[in-house]
Design a protein that fits this description.
alpha/beta, 5-stranded parallel β-sheet, Glycerate kinase, domain 2, 15 strands, elongated, single chain, kinase
């Protein structure tokens, strides 16, 4: 039996590759006669770089940049051939900020721009950037500033990290932007289809998750709207209501409008580059999983994207997940044949989410799954 293991990361606990190895070890312990192939997957968030570089001679590099709240952070990024792979979660990620310090009015994407600028100056011209997991809602202004764009008020002063100053925005200047930027190709990966502004926009939908008070949602949304309108007029384009413009707090808008980026589903982009479709066709069974399975998992997340591929090839898809919500049954209606939560004991959240516990629990769940298949096979 050929088993394809395509686990998403369990955020804050284990990476996609680590989860896949644990599941493979569990199947091996079960006595199930199988050949397993592990393929790390991601949807544009945590683990995107690892998934793209897996089984290549690409390199993971480290650089110091400005973090989401202005403090310097060390970030990992990938290099393979002529392409640089970046995760916004590394440069401007929500995991870099203490919960009590989350503040979309202050959080910046400046460090992302610094990293792009540095790589561009090193000769790289093709970028694949995963937009998931950001702490920001600055519509990419920080990134654009680091790349040389200047946003100015009527009296000629520059708007920096204070998003509230956008109410005084009257001029956009690109005289300091390097000509090299026009030579670059940006491919952005995201599982978010939200527009920049409005009731389904970046601020309204994701702002509260990033520390934004409900009473401030409309205020920040209007500020971002002003930036969007002025940018569209200045650039003679309009991506404000384009699906994905609201990804990563509006970074999708900045990439598409200022940097002529192409936006793809994170999983679809990875599936194409890693030929996952053919791997599914060759498998007898596919196992996926993520930290929490719920109704949202059928909306562009890794499990639902894999479900589309497995159904095309008429292959069973099983999900091993950290926990499941009451509405997770909807996943069965969208191609996941069965799912199995791994929590086996009553314990505090820290223990349950720890790396060691997650790996053991994944292995144990996979072993029991293998034993079940073996029992059926032997009847």
């Amino acid at each position: 039996m050929k088993v394809l293991i395509a686990m998403d990361s369990f955020k804050g606990s284990v990476s996609s590759l680590e989860a896949g190895k644990a599941v493979s070890q569990g199947l091996s312990k079960s006595g199930l006669s199988s050949h397993t192939e592990i393929v790390p997957v991601a949807d544009g968030g945590e683990g995107t770089v690892e998934a793209f570089l897996y089984k290549t001679d690409g390199k993971t590099m480290i650089k110091k940049v400005t973090g989401p709240l202005g403090k310097e952070v060390y970030v990992k990024y990938g290099i393979y051939k002529e392409t640089a792979y970046i995760e916004v979660a590394e440069t401007s990620g929500i995991t870099l900020v203490n919960k009590e310090e989350l503040d979309p009015f202050k959080a910046t994407t400046y460090g992302l721009g610094e990293l792009i600028e540095s790589l561009m100056n090193s000769g790289y011209r093709r970028f694949i950037i995963g937009l998931g997991g950001s702490a920001t809602n600055d519509a990419g202004i920080g990134m654009l500033r680091a790349l040389g764009y200047r946003f100015m008020t009527e009296n000629g002063s520059f708007i920096d990290e204070n998003i509230c100053e956008l109410s005084n925005l009257t001029k956009i200047d690109d005289s300091k932007v390097s000509n090299q930027l026009k030579e670059c190709q940006f491919i952005i990966a995201s599982d978010v289809n939200n527009p920049l502004v409005g009731k389904n926009g970046a601020t309204a939908v994701f702002g509260p998750q990033k520390g934004l008070k409900k009473s401030d949602v409309n205020t920040l949304d209007k500020l971002i709207e002003k930036f969007g309108v002025m940018s569209s007029s200045y650039l003679n384009n309009d991506f404000m209501m384009t699906a994905g413009a609201g990804a990563a707090g509006g970074l999708g808008f900045a990439f598409m409008s200022y940097l002529n980026a192409e936006l793809f589903s994170g999983f679809d982009l990875l599936a194409k580059e890693k030929n996952i479709i053919n791997k599914v066709k060759k498998a007898d069974m596919v196992i996926t999983g993520e930290g929490r399975l719920d109704a949202q998992s059928v909306m562009g997340k890794v499990p639902s994207a894999l479900a589309e591929l497995t159904k095309q090839s008429n292959k069973p898809l099983l999900a091993i997940c950290g926990s499941v919500s009451d509405d997770a049954g909807q996943c069965n209606e969208h191609g996941i044949d069965a799912f199995f939560p791994i929590i086996r004991q009553i314990a505090d959240e820290e223990t349950i989410l720890s790396k060691s516990n997650t790996l053991v629990s994944l292995e144990q769940a996979a072993e029991q799954l293998g034993r079940f298949y073996q029992a059926i096979k032997n009847k």
